[in-house]
Amino acid sequence: xxxxxxxxxxxxxxxxxxxxxxxxxxxxxxxxxxxxxxxxxxxxxxxxxxxxxxxxxxxxxxxxxxxxxxxxxxxxxxxxxxxxxxxxxxxxxxxxxxxxxxxxxxxxxxxxxxxxxxxxxxxxxxxxxxxxxxxxxxxxxxxxxxxxxxxxxxxxxxxxxxxxxxxxxxxxxxxxxxxxxxxxxxxxxxxxxxxxxxxxxxxxx
Length: 205
Description:
By secondary structure, this protein is of the alpha+beta class. It is built from six helices and four strands.
């Protein structure tokens, strides 16, 4: 009987805690953060799980990209709701700066390492992260050397760019460098109508 009472009390405490979590306002940022190491490990397991359910590297990257988009949509909505000082950007450069700084710091506790524009195509921009935190436990075999786990990051960026009314085709490219084996470049190629809008707005200044 006493064991049953103990179990009953334990269940009650768990239920109260769950209720408290559900009642927390999303308008207020939580001070407790999920460990990046824990998230990186979980992401590695997601890749392992997905790898056994796809036909090839392209399918795997597509799955990660779609997952990233789902995360990006929710991150963007939360920012717009919670951060009163943040307004919805609708120009290309402010949108890129928002992703490069505010979003990266919120998700990965640091700013992306660089933001650049292609010298060949004016509609292409690049966000570079020399050491993506969530990729630290990813080790692809030689036969998957072309695999870019950063497809997940590309999905996040694509969803946020679209939320800022700057839709783009976003891809991830693994470009290892000395001392930076996981260096990742997120390439954004903005839609034609976005660049035409940019020109009209610049002409109207």
